[in-house]
Amino acid sequence: MKNCLVVIPTYNEIENIEAIIRKVFSLSEPFDVLIVDDGSPDGTAQVVRRLQVEFSGRLHLLERKGKLGLGTAYLDGFRWAMPYGYEYFFEMDADFSHNPEDLVRLYYTCRDQEADVAVGSRYIKGVNVVNWPMGRVLMSYFAGVYVRFITGLSVMDPTAGFICYRRRVLEVLLQDRIHFVGYAFQIEMKFTCWKYGFQIVEVPIIFTDRTKGVSKMSTRIFKEAVFGVVQMKISSFFRHYIRPKSQEPYPKAVEASAEAE
User: Fold this and answer.
1) Distance between CA 12 and CA 243 in Å, rounded?
2) 106 vs 130 pLDDT, higher one
3) Which domains does the chain have, with CATH numbers?
4) Which residue, 23, 34, 94, 249, could crosslink 13 as a Cys pair with Cβ 3.0–4.6 Å?
5) Does the pLDDT at position 82 exceed 50?
6) CB-based burial of residue 8 (10 Å sphere; 0-12 exposed, 13-18 middle, 19+ buried)?
7) Which positions fall inside the Glycosyltransferase 2-like domain (predicted)?
8) Cα 42 from Cα 94, distance rounded (Å)
């Protein structure tokens, strides 16, 4: 049975995609990779298709038409992968801002420490960010302070995007309704996990800003997070976070394979 899947959303990552894929496949633990590409005009998907010949059965590609948002990329990737029986699902950027070596540490945290969610945290031990301008560091750090103040969530890095989820977590969250698609998606996922009572453990990492390609961060995405947190908190007052006792089985993998290679 397959065990670990790394989901990597891409849009115009041709400068990074081959290197990140090869690095993941070189790790001491076996990880499969699913690239969710939003119609990159630079040929990112073509590079992935070429590499699928070399990494047959381990490298998968889900192509979408146009930029549909980070959150939906991850959710579509998780839904595509569930029928294949993976037990651990990872979120990771394509640009090496997340060190692929840390995938192993996140995996061990869930496997050996019984965490439900392992978060690669930039702020659990001071501020561990490299090559960011001070303004962006402060914006990111105080976004976490703001989120914790509004929601009561204790996670030091609620906007982090380097994460391992156990299968049982996604079986619940994929039946829920995750609203946000941008920066706030990461906050909403952690908040929802917390409300359902899943154990979240932060693992200290060093975040290094990309050296190739262009950042996808924008003012609009940041505003979604700022105002979305209040909306999310208010909505939570009218909900009951009770884990379903049973879930409908996911369809067999063969039925899901039409969307990806």
Assistant:
1) 38
2) 106
3) 4-259 (3.90.550.10)
4) 94
5) yes
6) buried
7) 6-173
8) 15
The CA angle 132-180-149, to the nearest 5 degrees, is 65
Q: Structure tokens of 94? A: 């394509």
Q: What are phi and psi of 113, to 5 degrees?
A: -100, 5
Q: Is the dihedral of CA 96, 181, 77, 176 positive or negative?
A: positive
Nearest to 180 by CA among 82, 69, 255: 69
Question: Quick one: tokens of 164?
Answer: 């391992």
- The encoded tokens of residue 230 equal 């209040």
Encoded amino acid at 78, one letter = F
- pLDDT, one tens digit per residue, over 132-178 is 778 777 888 888 899 999 999 999 999 999 999 999 999 999 988 88
CB-count exposure of residue 253 (10 Å: 0-12, 13-18, 19+): middle
> What's the CA gap between 242 and 186, in Å, rounded?
21
**CA nearest neighbour of 221 among 189, 186, 177:** 186
- Residue owning tokens 């063969």: 254
Distances in whole angstroms, Cα of residue 24 to Cα of each of 7, 97, 205, 217: 11, 14, 17, 24
**Amino acid (one-letter) located at 85:** G
Amino acid found at 223: K
